[in-house]
Amino acid sequence: LKTPLKQAAxxxxxxxxxQPDCPPLTTPPKPKETPPADxxxxxxxxxxxxxxxxxxxxxxxxxxxxxxxxxEEHLLGDEYEKSQPSRKxxxxxxxxxxxxxxxxxxxxxxxxxxxxxxxxxxxxxxxxRRIYDIVNVLESLHMVSRLARNRYVWHGRHNLPQTLQALxxxxxxxxxxxxxxxxxxxxxxxxxDADGKRNEEMASSFGSSEQSEMSFVELPGVEFRxxxxxxxKYKSLRVMSQKFVMLFLxxxxxxxxxxxxAKILIGEDQLEDLDKSKFKTKIRRLYDIANVLSSLKxxxxxxxxxxxxxxxxxxxxxxxxxxxxxxxxxxxxxxxxAPPISESIPSKEQCSKALFPSKGKQNFTRHSSxxxxxxxxxxxxxxxxxxxxSPVKISSSMYLFLTFLLETSFSLFLSQxxxxxxxxxxxxxxxxxxxxxxxxxxxxxxxxxxxxxxSHSSVSPVILPHPQSGVSYAICLHPSQAHTVxxxxxxxxxxxxxxxxxxxxxSNNSKVLNKISTEEGDTQRGPDEPTKSLAAEERPExxxxxxxxxxxxxxxxxENNLIKRRKSDEESLDTSLTFFPSGYLIPLTHCTHxxxxxxxxxxxxxxxxxxxxxxxxxxxxxxPMPASELxxxxxxxxxxxxxxxxxxxxxxxxxxxxxxxxxxSSSTGSASNPSSSALNxxxxxxxxxxxxVQVTANPVLQHMPGSSQSENTNHSSGSxxxxxxxxxxxxTFYSPIxxxxxxxxLQPSAPKEPQEPQxxxxxxxxxxxxxxxxxxxxxxxxxxxxxxxxxxxIPQRKLEVSED
DNA sequence: CCGTCCCGCCAGTAT
DNA sequence: ATACTGGCGGGACGG
Length: 804
What we know:
WH-like_DNA-bd_sf; transcription; DNA-binding transcription factor activity, RNA polymerase II-specific
C-alpha cells in the first residue's frame, strides 16, 4: 500500500469529518473537534504552537479558520486546496511541539503529571503511532517514563542534566570519538577504492570490545519500566535516540552529520554489511529522532559542506554538559539545568585583573573565582598527566592568558573558521601522519609543546622553546587552508613565522581534505527580534567551559599533524608554497631555564615549566602577573598548524602600516597600565610580524562620547596622528575561507581613571553590554565592528548563518 | 532530482 | 482475542 495521495487524503478527511459513520478503513473516527482546554498552560500552549508554526502554516491555518467559520459548505467546493493539511503541518516536529506544549518544562515535583496516550492522540488529532515516536525519544531522555500501558509520567526537563551527563559518559566509554574519526577518515581514503581492507580497519578501530550493543541508559532515579518490553528489542528507537545524543555530547564541535550517526549506529550492531537499505532506514529513524530533539531545542539542523556537497547534520544546542562532577567541586550548580555560565564569567574578569592589575593598587581582593579556576585546572591536570601525549608545563596564568587572548581577540580575526571546522579537520587528519616523538629526536623544536586552543578559538597556540635565542615562543597558529595560499597574492599574506620547526611539521599527509563549513539551516526565528534571539542563542563560550573542554579534548586526541590540503589544489599549486606557514610569535622571555634543559631532557614529556613571576616580551616589557597565580599546568601536546591570514586589499590600501619601531616606542613606558599594557602587548605582537606585513593600524578619529577627558597613551606611530588622544585602531582581515572581511578595532582608553582603574581592564575583556552595544551578529553583514570608548571591543564570534 | 519524512502495515507483546 | 507498541520502508511532498 502506498502513502495516500494528497488528494485522497483530503477527500477522506472531509468525508470523515462529514460522516463519522463511515470510517474508511483506518483509525477510529475521532469525535471531531478537540478544543478541551489545555490542562497545564492553556494560553501558552496556543502561543507556543503559533510561534512554532512557520508563517506559512500560520496563515494557512488562519485562512482555514476563516473559511471554516464563515461557511462550511463553501469549504468543500472552492477551498479544498487551501484547507489541505500540508505535509508540514503534519510533521512530527510540529506535532511534538504540540505535545510538549501540553506539559510544563519543569513540573512541580509535588504534583505529578500523567500522560494518557489516548487523550493525547485524540486531542492532538493524530495517529497513535506518531505519539509513540515522540514518547520514545522523550523516554530516552527520561523526560517521561512509562507507567503502564497507555500511561506515562511526565518529568519534564528535570532529569535532563543527569541524563545528558550519563549519556556523555557512556558515549565516552563507547569511544565514539574514535569511531567518528574512523568513519571520516575512511570516507576520504576510500574515494574510489575497492575496499579490501575495510574490514580490517574496521575491526582494528572498533577493536577491543563491542560492549555496547543494545543497552539503554537508565538513570538511578528514573526506572525504566516498560513492562517486560524492557527486555530487549523494543527499545530500538530509544536506544538510537540516546546514542544519537551521545554523539553530540562527545564530539567536540557538537555537530553530527546524519550520515556519520547512521553509520555508527549501524556499525555497532553489525558492522559487516554496508547494506544500503539498512542505512536508509537508519537515516529515516534519525530524522524522526532529530525532529523531536529539535522540538526540544536540543539540536538544530545545520549543514556541513564538504567537497562532496552539503550534508545534513545537526548541531547540539542543548545545555552544556559538564564533565563528570563526581570528584569535583561545583557544589551549588550541579542540580541546575541551566548551563553554568555565571561561574565562568567572573573567571575571565579575574583573569584579566590578574594579568593586568591596575597601577599600584592592590586589587586582587576578589580572587576567589580565579583561584577556584586554577584549582580546577590543577585538578584536570592530574588526570591529564597520565596521558600518553607529551604535556607541556606552563603557568596556569600564562595559559589562561594565552587562551584568553587567543580566544577573545586573535581568533576573531585570524579567521572565521569555526571550531567545528577545526575539529573536523582534526578528525580527518590521519594519526600516523605524526610519528610519535622519539626520545632521540631533534631537540626542542621538533617536539610538540602545546597549549591547546580554546575550543572556539580558531587558533592553535603552541609553546615552543627556542634553543638558539633561549626564548620560548608561543606561536599562534591557525589551521591552514593551505590551498588558499596560492589562490591569493602572496603579498597579502602575513609573513611566515621564522621558526624552523614549523617546516618540520610539514605534513607528509597530503590527504584530501574536505573544506567543511557549517552553516545554520532553517534559521527561522521569529520575524521579530531576529538579532536578539540569535545573540541569545549563540552565547559565547565561557572561560571555564573552554578550559575544561580544552583540556579534556586534548587529552583525548592523539597529536595529529593537521596540515592538509585539498587534492584539487595539489596539482594547481606550486608545492613549495603550499605549506607556507604564518602566524604569531609570542616570546616568553622568562621561561624558566631549567626549562630548556628540562625540555630537551624530557622530550617525550615535553615539559617546559614557566615559573617566573612575570613574563616579559622583549618589546613591550612585562606583563605583570601575581606570583600567587603561578601554579603550573600541564597542557598536553597539541598539533601545530600553519596560519594564513589574508588581509583585505581594501584595508591595506586604506591604512598606513604600523612599523615595529612605532610600536616599540609607544609601548615602552606604559606596561604598568592595564589597558595600555594589554594593548601594547597585542600591538607589539602584531608588530612582531615584520613591518612589511599588511597588518595595519588604521587610526580612525572618531567621536567618542565620553573619552575626551582621557589622555591616552599614544599607541600609534608618528604617522598616526593623534587627536585629542583618541585613537582607534582597526584591523581588517580577510578570511579566505569564506571570502569575507573581518574587522575589529582597538581603542586605547584613558590610562588613568583613578576611581575606576579596573573598569578598563574588565571591559577590555568583555563584550560590553551597553544598550547600543548589542553585538552586531547580523547574518548578512560581512564584518562585525564594535567600537566604544576606552575599550577594546571584541566582536562576538561571528557565526555564519546562511539561510538555506 | 533529492532530501525529508508521513503513513500505515504488520509483527511482536501485553492484558 | 484484543489492544498496544513500535520496526520498518514505500513512496509522497517540497524545494
